[in-house]
Description:
The chain is α+β, with helices and mostly antiparallel strands. It has helices at 19-25, 28-32, 35-44, 54-62, 69-79, 95-107, 115-124, 182-191, 219-230, 290-305, 317-340, 347-354, 358-368, 384-399, 419-422; strands at residues 144-146, 149-151, 169-171, 178-179, 200-204, 208-214, 245-254, 257-267, 274-276, 278-281, 310-311, 371-374, 377-380. It folds into three domains: 9-107, no CATH class; 115-191, N-acetyl transferase-like (Wheat Germ Agglutinin (Isolectin 2), domain 1, 2-Layer Sandwich), CATH 3.30.60.60; 200-422, Aminopeptidase.
Amino acid sequence: MEWPNPEKPKDGKKASAPAVKKAATAPKKGQKRPAPPTREESIASEGGATPHPWTEFVATQNSTPSADGNEKLTLTLDLDVTPGAEDDDPMDVDVEESVSQAISAKAQPPEQFSREEEIEKLRTGGSMTQNQAEISRIRNISRVQFGKFDLYPWYFSPYPEIFTQEDLMYICEFCLCYYGDVKSFGRHRQKCTLLHPPGNEIYRDDYVSFFEIDGKRQRTWCRNLCLLSKMFLDHKTLYYDVDPFLFYVMTTRDEKGCHLVGYFSKEKESADGYNVACILTLPQFQRKGYGRLLIQFSYELSKIEGKLGSPEKPLSDLGLLSYRQYWTENLVEILLEHNEREERCSIEQLASLLAMTPTDVESTMQALKMQVYHKGEHKIVLPTHLINKHEALKEKYKTKPKRLIVAERIQWKPPVFTASNRTWGW
C-alpha cells in the first residue's frame, strides 16, 4: 500500500488508506481545512438530532489520528452535538467503518456481567475490588458460622466459587479453614489441634492477648485471615501477597483457647512510615472498646520503635471514626494536663508524646476547630464542649473502667528483615 502524497491533501477522504497511517505523514493543515463546514453543519442540525452515545464516541476516538491532539479536541466538541452516524462528516477518514461500529454498538445492550462472571473475575484476579463501586459490593457468602457466632458478611470475599452456593459456610475459629458442610467441618474439628494464632504471644493481660504472625512463615493462616476480613472491609484489595506484612492478632482467652477478636496488619518496611496497613474488629465484638485497644497497641509499638506512626490512607468510614475518636481523647487529655501545669506545647511536642505524625495532629485539630490565629501567631484552644465531653467520659470510666494497653506488659523488640524476608522468597 502506498503512502498518500503529501502534496495532495484533498485525497485524504478516500477510505482506502487507514486513518492512523495517514496522520503519520499527511500534513495537518490539509486535515483541518474542512473543519469550518463541520461546525456549521453541527450547529444547523443541533435542534433535531440525537447526541451520540458514549460507545460511539470511543469508537470515533479510536479512528481519530493520534498525532493531532487539536483534532481530537474538535471531535470531542462536535460529537456531543452532531447528528447521527449516518450523516457525512468530512473530518472522518474511515466513515464507513465508523458508521458500522457505531450502529453495531448502538444495537448491542450496555456491557453487563452476570453475577457468576463478576464473582469469577474477582476470585481469579489479584485485586479483590476491581470495581469499587459495583462488583465489590456483591455479597457472595450468605452466612458464616464462626465459633459460637453466626456472621452475616457485608461485602464480597473471593472464597472458592463452590462456597457461594451454600446457605451456611463453616470457618474454624482457630486455624480459619473453611468448609461447606457440617460433616467435613466436624471431622476437621476433631483433628484440629490449634488453640491460638500460630505466632508469638507478645502481650497478655486480664482481658486480651496479642500475637505477632509473620505473613511469610504462616501464609495459609494469614491468607485465610484476609479472606475472612474481606467480608467486612470494602476497601481491602489484596489477599494473596501476605509476605511483606506482619499481622498482630488480638484474642480473648477461656478454657477452650484463644478466640479471635480483631487484628491489624503492618508492613515490614513502610516507605511512608505507616504503622497500620489494615485494621478490623469482627462484627460480634464491635462497639465494645476493642478497636481502641488495637489502635493503642499499634501506637505503643511505634513508641518502642522510636518512630511516629500513622494509619495507611485512605481510611475506611469506620476506621476514620475510630481513629478520630482516639486522637481526640488523647489530644484533649494532654492539653488539659499542660493547661493545669500552665505549660506551653506545640504540635510537634504533641506528636512526639502520642507517637502520631504532625499531619494527623494538625488535621484532627482543624476538624475540631482547635486552631486559631490570634495577634499574629497560631494558638491551640480547647472548645468548651470538648472539655465537657471529656469530663463526662471520666465520670463514665469511674463506674465502667476503660480498657487500656499496659505498655510494661509488651514483650517485643522491633524485628529486622533482610530484602528476602520482606517479599516472596523465590
